[in-house]
Design brief:
With 85 residues, this protein is α+β, with helices and mostly antiparallel strands. Helices cover 25% and strands 33% of the residues. It has one domain. It is globular.
């Protein structure tokens, strides 16, 4: 049984494995969703680079300002809808 290459995300430190003997391309961290460019040769991770950093769920989930609409935005949408009817 061969060992799968282990990847440690440079953004969040999460360890995960990939089932590839040789691979060159992008992989997304399953925890923080960072996009990583990796090179795997002969079951060994030889290169890793962060393409885009992910956002941990806890950071945005509780950020009410992120989800709140601008004041009056909903009212404008309703007015537009009524005009089209």
């Amino acid at each position: 049984m061969r060992a799968m290459p282990e990847i440690t995300c440079p953004v969040c430190g999460f360890n995960f494995y990939v089932n590839e003997v040789s691979y060159e391309g992008e992989i997304q961290c399953p925890k923080c969703k960072a996009l990583l460019e990796v090179v795997i040769e002969d079951d060994e991770l030889t290169e890793i680079k962060v393409v885009t950093e992910g956002v941990e769920e806890e950071l945005w989930e509780g950020d009410e300002d992120f989800w709140e609409e601008e004041e009056g935005e909903e009212e404008l949408w309703e007015e537009d809808w009524e005009e089209e009817i």
